[in-house]
Specification:
Elements lengths: L7 H17 L6 H8 L3 H7 L1 H11 L2 H5 L6 H48 L16
């Protein structure tokens, strides 16, 4: 809108549009946005249209508008997804460390039990007595 042609009706139409967008969850209503879309400065809006400003403030303070969540942008969705993936990655890393420790403990226990079983069975392990391969033979 041109600054010279901004009438109360035009500013009210811009205000109604902003409030409808706020109810739809795509923007938050503000006096700055109203002045910018109307094509006038904020001081001019306050000075020349104080009744419209007060009406806009009252309407934008409506609990339905403030409670309406803003629609998320693709960038916000990506940030939320990245945060979720990082959290899941950290949990998976902790699981891998836990499983690694369990495998280590079970390997040591298996070796100990195999040695104990061999000692109790009275059977000699012949692999201990075999000559080792010497390089070149």
């Amino acid at each position: 809108m041109n600054r010279a042609t901004s009438t109360e009706a035009q500013i009210q139409a811009v205000a109604d549009t902003l409030l409808a967008e706020a109810r739809a969850g795509t923007t938050r209503p503000s006096i700055s946005a109203l002045a910018e879309r109307a094509g006038i400065s904020r001081p001019t809006l306050y000075r020349n249209h104080p009744v419209l400003v007060e009406r806009f403030r009252a309407a934008s303070a409506d609990s339905r508008i403030l409670a309406a969540p803003l629609a998320s942008t693709p960038t916000q969705e990506l940030r939320e997804r990245i945060t979720t993936l990082r959290r899941e990655n950290e949990q998976l890393r902790l699981h891998v460390e836990l499983y690694e420790e369990h495998i280590r403990r079970l390997t040591v226990e298996n070796t100990r039990l195999a040695s104990e079983l061999a000692a109790r069975s009275g059977v000699s392990d012949l692999t201990v007595h075999q000559p080792r391969n010497v390089a070149g033979q």
